[in-house]
Amino acid sequence: MSNNKSHDTMISRIVASYAARTDVTPNDIVELISKLRQEFSTEIAVGASEAKINTDKIKPALPIDQAVTQDQVFCLCCGKGFKMLKRHLGVEHGLNESEYRKLFDLPETMPLVAPSYSDKKAAHAKQLGLGKYHREASNRDEAYTE
Ligand SMILES: [Zn+2]
Asked: Which of 37, 54, 108, 132 has its C-alpha lying 20 to 30 A from 123's C-alpha?
């Protein structure tokens, strides 16, 4: 009931500004009112169903607790698996990481890179660092012995 009343207020506001125009006849106004009433009643129906879609989370392509495996991270939009999701999200779905997280209500801690892939990268970096350290250390040793 209160909804209809607020729509009536809205309609009368629109009609008032419309009626202020010099090129409008009383018939035009009557027509406008009935049109607006129709528009608003369809809009109410559409608005209600839209609101329902918005409040429901988009159903992920697979359960979120299955979206991350050791070697792949699965896209919840389409169910494809990747080592890194970021690029796919941008190219295929036009989403950035935070939009994707918001869409499926994902926690910040949820990885978007396969654990094995980031492990390998970390291990590789560590190896490089260690290798450098060893080389420098042995060079220094040689310097000392000379
Ligand atoms: Zn996808």
From this structure: 108
